[in-house]
Amino acid sequence: MGRQKTPGLRLRGRIWYISKRIKGYGRLSESTGTGERRLAEEFLQKRLAEIYGAVRLGRRPVYEWTDAVVKYLHEATHLRTYADQQRSLRRLDPYLRGRLLHQVHDDVLRPFVSDRLAESVKHSTINRDLEVVRRILRLASRTWRDGCTGVTWLSEAPAITMLRQDDAREPTVLEWNEQDRLMRELPTHLAKMVLFSVNTGCRQEEVCGLRWDESRPEHFLLSKQRTKTKRARRVPLNRVARRVIEDCRGDHGERVFVYRGNPVTKINNTAWKKARARARLSIRVHDLRHSFAVRLREAGVHAWTISALLGHQSKTITEHYAQPRMAELLEAVERLCERPEDAANATLKLRVGGAKFDITPQS
Question: Which pTM value belongs to this model?
């Protein structure tokens, strides 16, 4: 007498397949991956036990932190901060490797936070690492589902406590005499980038990535892929910024700011830090953007116009429909060329190759 068939198993070719309807779950249809009947039956019983535990008993499949990291990195490749998040996860790895996903919480992360604080790392930097953990746990509790049982990886995400950012440094405004002092210490290619930044309010990555195909007669048009807010942005040029751009024309076929034929990847490099030290200044690159905004405000420019020039995302419908026109933006940035009386006679003299690069702001 032949062996009785196991309900739910069908032989297709040389492989056994599962085809079984389960109450509270639906139909289970998948390959056992084997042509041996005994192994196929064991596989089926294992899968039925998993589903019964999930559906009837409320059990969830168990995932490790490493499983979540692999899945997250596979799905997050489109993010602009992908490389930064990879570095964050590498820093967290010694503290979380081998742990189950539901075991990741504040107590487990406390040694990581303590070690980073002992290295004098800023609270905001530590929070960026913790934010990646928070993001992964939220996805595991809300979005990611087990392919077999259909339930989320976690029942709920534990709250990850962020550090208070009371150690954050207040932004610094670059005074005119400090700007001139810094310019004299910077190498020419960086001096031009700094001068462009403080006259346009562009972020460091926007300045470094500036391309000639984005150039227009009186402004640059940055695509949504190039801006932090993921929206296309116009960068109007006053006469100082236009003078900088014209002096860079012809240095490279694609990028605006280059050094020895190669695109500059960041302003905050060793040359910047050494020049800043010689000029006895403690400003950061982002302070150039802050100085741009403060100078506009002191020149009487409306707050909405300043927001548009900085590329901030509109928060209200009124701001959305009251976006300033290009003529208004150009008039606003042109005010930055008018120095106060105590700095009106200052002339910036750089050297580009063998020629002097002179900019008199009120000329």
Answer: 0.62
